[in-house]
Design a protein that fits this description.
The chain is an alpha+beta fold. It has one domain: Nuclear Transport Factor 2, Chain: A, CATH 3.10.450.50. Strand 4 and strand 5 form a beta hairpin. The two termini are 20 Å apart. This is Ketosteroid isomerase-like protein. Pfam families: SnoaL_2. It comes from Micromonospora ureilytica. InterPro entries: NTF2-like_dom_sf (IPR032710), SnoaL-like (IPR037401).
Length: 104
């Protein structure tokens, strides 16, 4: 999933999600693949984000935690920010059904 995200491959990302995926966007939640496609395509016009994940940790009940070091740059390549997060995924039938983000 992170490789597809880092190369801005919306189709590759969407293939890994359930149709009713629930995804964070700041204080709101996005629902469904169409909403995520629009979100990513618009986001990628404004910034280029690179997420470097650590090994996933299984939490049980289909939940996985991944520590991520994130670098955000302008489309021209100038650095904007770096941060560390924990991505929490809920997996259903081998696909991501939900993602939440916590600060690390």
């Amino acid at each position: 999933m992170y490789a597809a995200y880092n190369r801005r491959d919306a189709d590759g990302l969407l293939a890994l999600l359930t149709n009713d995926v629930d995804w964070p966007d700041g204080d709101v939640r996005l629902h469904g693949k169409d909403a995520l496609r629009r979100y990513w395509l618009e986001q990628w016009t404004r910034v280029h984000t690179h997420d470097e994940p650590s090994e996933p940790v299984e939490l049980g009940d289909g939940r996985i935690a991944v520590r991520v070091d994130q670098t955000v740059r302008t489309p021209e390549g100038s650095p904007l920010s770096t941060a560390r997060f924990v991505h929490l995924f809920q997996i259903r039938d081998g696909l991501t059904a939900r993602m939440d983000i916590e600060t690390a």
